[in-house]
């Protein structure tokens, strides 16, 4: 039985918890709130009360389960091996089954399933975004703030919507002269609509390594925003659509440059579809050939070192939770950075501590998200670097917001952008 179908599925996981409180030491929510409900142990107790029938899943309970960035730090610090990531997903899905989805989330996830409508909305948004967003001068990126506080954090800095989506900028198949491999690129929403610069860097690096790139136009959102918010129906619809889109085009491997998207392809699609024999087999097949871009470049290609040009950057690396703890990828991005001539890698304190973004968490709990971000920003500042590299567009957004608000001139990039820059310089020379 999947965690998405019943709260009973986590009974065993709940029984493993001996209430030692070790999770308190690493929980970013507990660090800020100092409240038992913020930490894994507190939410485990709530789930136990609900399962035993001592209390009901009320709206208030659902709100308490929203207090988690799903960073998985508690998983790794738990002496009993409690998989809290499974508990929180099951609890949120139960909250939606019992109390329904909040209207704003219902509208957002419905739009995500209607790809043409969503594309049209984003296109219109890219034209009229100036009405809601005010440009802020920044020499590295096009950034903006909300003109009016709509309750998602007045100080939050956003990237501007791209005038042209990544998927409309490129053909479905990008050919190279002598292809070593044919690779599908799952762009994810943030790279398709906002951070097209990351997408262009992925494509440039793959082409530089003689790889044919396939970008199915019919791919959709990875569905992680829906699954972590308990909307299992929407998450399943999106998982099926993505599997069919890539199966139709065919590829030797699939690459992702977003940590949530990578988790979806490697783990979540299979779990969501485990009751459908045919789709589960398809999800498992693609899970085996899905790679984060850094993992792919280190272990599958490996990427060309000749032709790399000098990039004079002092770089610190922030580890996305769903890349590091979710997929076990930590040394690969560092290996890439260390291979680039001129790059000096300087580690920050606790590079794997959550940045506080966590998708919709930062919109639902903007103040808390901001406090968690402030700690990360302070750690970045002490490295005295000029660049933060990371492996996820959502972390990039949060880190950009943090450094912009702290008023220091740090550029925030995806690791693959720095590699693409190095190839670019190499070609010029
Ligand atoms: S560290 Fe593990 S066993 Fe201890 S309270 Fe937290 S979840 Fe329970
Ligand atoms: S997943 Fe992260 S935020 Fe959620 S309870 Fe565990 S440590 Fe805290």
From TrEMBL:
Gene3D superfamilies: Alpha-helical ferredoxin (1.10.1060.10). Component of a complex that catalyzes the oxidation of glycolate to glyoxylate. It comes from Desulfosporosinus hippei DSM 8344. One of its GO terms (molecular function) is metal ion binding. Pfam families: CCG, Fer4_8. InterPro entries: 4Fe4S_Fe-S-bd (IPR017896), 4Fe4S_Fe_S_CS (IPR017900), Cys_rich_dom (IPR004017), Glc_ox_4Fe-4S (IPR012257), Helical_ferredxn (IPR009051). Keywords: 4Fe-4S, Electron transport, Iron, Iron-sulfur, Metal-binding, Repeat, Transport. It comes from the Bacteria. The keyword Metal-binding applies. It catalyses: glycolate + A = glyoxylate + AH2; (R)-lactate + A = pyruvate + AH2. Its EC number is 1.1.99.14. This is Glycolate oxidase iron-sulfur subunit.
């Amino acid at each position: 039985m999947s965690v998405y179908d019943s709260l009973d599925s986590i009974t065993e996981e709940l029984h493993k918890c001996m209430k030692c409180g070790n999770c308190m030491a690493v929980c970013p929510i507990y660090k800020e709130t100092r409240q038992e409900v913020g930490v894994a142990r507190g939410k485990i107790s709530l789930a136990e009360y609900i399962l035993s029938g001592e209390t009901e899943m009320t709206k208030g309970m659902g709100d308490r389960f929203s207090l988690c960035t799903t960073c998985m730090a508690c998983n790794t610090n738990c002496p009993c091996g409690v998989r809290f990531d499974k508990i929180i997903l099951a609890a949120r899905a139960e909250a939606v089954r019992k109390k329904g989805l909040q209207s704003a989330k219902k509208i957002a996830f419905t739009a995500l399933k209607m790809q043409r409508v969503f594309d049209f909305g984003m296109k219109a948004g890219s034209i009229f975004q100036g009405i809601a967003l005010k440009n802020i001068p920044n020499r590295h990126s096009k950034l903006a703030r909300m003109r009016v506080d709509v309750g998602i954090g007045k100080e939050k800095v956003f990237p501007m919507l791209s005038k042209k989506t990544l998927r409309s900028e490129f053909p479905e198949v990008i050919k190279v002269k002598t292809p070593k491999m044919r690779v599908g690129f799952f762009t994810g929403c943030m790279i398709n609509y906002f951070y097209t610069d990351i997408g262009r860097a992925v494509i440039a690096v793959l082409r530089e390594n003689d790889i044919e790139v396939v970008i199915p136009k019919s791919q959709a959102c990875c569905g992680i925003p829906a699954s972590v918010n308990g909307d299992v129906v929407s998450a399943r619809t999106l998982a099926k659509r993505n599997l069919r889109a890539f199966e139709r085009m065919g590829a030797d491997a699939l690459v992702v440059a977003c940590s949530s998207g990578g988790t979806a392809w490697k783990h979540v699609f299979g779990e969501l579809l485990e009751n459908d024999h045919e789709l589960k087999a398809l999800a498992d097949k693609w899970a085996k050939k899905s790679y984060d871009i850094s993992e792919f470049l280190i272990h599958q290609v490996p990427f060309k070192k000749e032709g790399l040009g000098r990039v004079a950057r002092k770089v610190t690396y922030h580890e996305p939770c769903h890349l590091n703890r979710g997929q076990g990828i930590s040394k690969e991005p560092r290996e890439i950075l260390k291979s680039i001539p001129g790059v000096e890698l300087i580690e920050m304190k606790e590079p794997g501590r959550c940045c506080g973004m966590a998708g919709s968490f930062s919109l639902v709990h903007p103040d808390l998200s901001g406090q968690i971000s402030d700690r990360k920003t302070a750690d970045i500042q002490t490295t005295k670097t000029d660049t933060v590299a990371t492996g996820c567009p959502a972390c990039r957004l949060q880190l950009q917001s943090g450094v912009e608000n702290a008023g220091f001139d740090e550029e925030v990039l995806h690791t693959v952008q720095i590699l693409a820059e190095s190839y670019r310089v190499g070609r010029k020379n």
